[in-house]
Structure formats: structure tokens, C-alpha cells
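Fill in residues.
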């Protein structure tokens, strides 16, 4: 039996969350084409008869412009502590740039096996792929270089095999039916935020947070009352939309996704609130983080 931790790290939009979801065969992390979609280091627990691997999906490392951005970077770097393997993800359609070099230097400090996961190979021709892989191999930084497409599932099985082969012997540390450590309230907020991301322009996504105000459920139904925080009244107007159509669409799509996840009727009530400069408010950021982790002020 093998057991170990694998941290996925890389720049925004490298495909970390898509890969975790592909491995798990379930939607553990939300996905969008917006940078900084992932805001928490999410543990996904993958169990087979031969191994239990805990994959840690992290926020994309970027140049921060506010306290939230700094917090996301810290979360990603902290996730490297105590893991057995680092997956350094790269978007195959983009050149190896200064941002990638910065992330790689952070990885090298940990003195752990680094797997270059060269993702989105479906966007390259065979000739382009061979050229890029040769260039990256010549850098001499990586213990393994594995080209994949998380989107099309190309070569992901080989990635898992190579990973398990490199993990230490050990017993499973989590129940085999367990897939994540996060409470369900976290996934509810993420599903709502995902619909905000897919329904709004570039201005809104980074300025929005979701807070659960009330959550009640029984065997047949779930009542969710949640606040969507934005930083400016203009953003609030965009989210609500003309005659409330935008927020109605967001709520409807989120409700359908939630009903599919929980198999029961969902009553979803969303309200948009302006919280000026919340991304630089450490107290507010801590409160949101505590809720995501299912913590209380007494813990």
C-alpha cells in the first residue's frame, strides 16, 4: 500500500483544478477561464486498493495587487510543506516565462521530487510538443516530465502510475469513501461563485466573495441564504442586472448544479452587498476563510 501527498502548483489557468477533477472523477474544484478562480488549497483524497493519494489543489501564483492576492500566494506556498511530490503545472500553449521561473524557484527550495506536468497538449501539434518537451528537459530541473491533457484525459493514467510508484509505503490515513476535508458549506459557496465567474465580465470575478448566511436542510430539501460581496456599487448593479435578470440567472444555474449534487430540492436566496475594499480587509478575509474551513470563533 502506498500513501502520500501531492501538491499542484503553477501560474493561474495552468489547469490544476481541471486535473484534480479529472483524477477524482468528480467536481472537487470549480473551474473557469478567469485567473484566481481557486482561492483555497483544496485536499482531494484519491483512494484505490493499491494507494491513497491526497492531491492539494492550490491557487495560481501571481503578482498580487491586494491583500487577498497575497493570501492566495501564501496558501499556495504553504501547501508545499510536508508533501511527497510537487506537480509543477504548465500551460503547454504558453512559453516558459518569468512567472514560471519564479514558481519553479519556490518549488526547488523544498528539495522534493518535482514533476513537470505539461498540460493542454491537445493545443499543440506533435512537432510543437516534441520541441517544447526537449527544451524543458534541457533545463534539468525535473524528476519527471509528463505531457497530459486534463481536459481530454490524455496520459493522465500514466501520470497516476508514475506518481504512485514514487510514493512511500504507508497505510491509508483517510476513510476510503472520503474525497475531501472541506464541509459542504464550502462547496455551496464555490458553486455559487462559479456561476458568478461564468456570468460576468473580467471586472467582477476577483472582487466577489460568497458568505452563507443561513443553511437548513432535511431529507427532501435545502434552504440556502447567501450574500455575494462586491467592492463597489457599480459592481453590485452589474451583478443584479437589468430588472434583476443577472442575479436571477446566476441563482437559477447555481440551484440546478446544487440539486444535481445533493439530489434534493434547493431553495436558494441570494443578496448582493457592497463591502468596500474587502479584499484588503484582513478581518473580513479571515472571517471568509474560517467559514470556508467550517471553523467557528471558538476553535
Amino acid at each position: 500500500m502506498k500513501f502520500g501527498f501531492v501538491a499542484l502548483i503553477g501560474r493561474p489557468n495552468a489547469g490544476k483544478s481541471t486535473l484534480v477533477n479529472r483524477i477524482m472523477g468528480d467536481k472537487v474544484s470549480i473551474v473557469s477561464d478567469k485567473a484566481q478562480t481557486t482561492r483555497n488549497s483544496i485536499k482531494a483524497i484519491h483512494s484505490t486498493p493499491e494507494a491513497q493519494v491526497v492531491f492539494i489543489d492550490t491557487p495560481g501564483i501571481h503578482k498580487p495587487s491586494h491583500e487577498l492576492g497575497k493570501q492566495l500566494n501564501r496558501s499556495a506556498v504553504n501547501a508545499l510543506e510536508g508533501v511527497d511530490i510537487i506537480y509543477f503545472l504548465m500551460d503547454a500553449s504558453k512559453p516558459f516565462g518569468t512567472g514560471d521561473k519564479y514558481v519553479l524557484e519556490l518549488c526547488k527550495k523544498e528539495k522534493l521530487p518535482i514533476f513537470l506536468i505539461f498540460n493542454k497538449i491537445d493545443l499543440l501539434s506533435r512537432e510543437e510538443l516534441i520541441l517544447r518537451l526537449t527544451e524543458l528537459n534541457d533545463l534539468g530541473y525535473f524528476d519527471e516530465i509528463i505531457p497530459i491533457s486534463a481536459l481530454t484525459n490524455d496520459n493522465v493514467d500514466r501520470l497516476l502510475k508514475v506518481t504512485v510508484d514514487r510514493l512511500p509505503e504507508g497505510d491509508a490515513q483517510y476513510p476510503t469513501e472520503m474525497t475531501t476535508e472541506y464541509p459542504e458549506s464550502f462547496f455551496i459557496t464555490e458553486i455559487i461563485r462559479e456561476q458568478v465567474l461564468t456570468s460576468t465580465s473580467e471586472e467582477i470575478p476577483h472582487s466577489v466573495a460568497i458568505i452563507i448566511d443561513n443553511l437548513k436542510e432535511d431529507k427532501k430539501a435545502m434552504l440556502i441564504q447567501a450574500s455575494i460581496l462586491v467592492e463597489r456599487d457599480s459592481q453590485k448593479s452589474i451583478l443584479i442586472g437589468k430588472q434583476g435578470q443577472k442575479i436571477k440567472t446566476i441563482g437559477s444555474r447555481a440551484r440546478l448544479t446544487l440539486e444535481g449534487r445533493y439530489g434534493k430540492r434547493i431553495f436558494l436566496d441570494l443578496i448582493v452587498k457592497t463591502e468596500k475594499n474587502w479584499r484588503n480587509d484582513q478581518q473580513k478575509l479571515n472571517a471568509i476563510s474560517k467559514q470556508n474551513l467550517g471553523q467557528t470563533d471558538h476553535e
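The mean pLDDT is 86.
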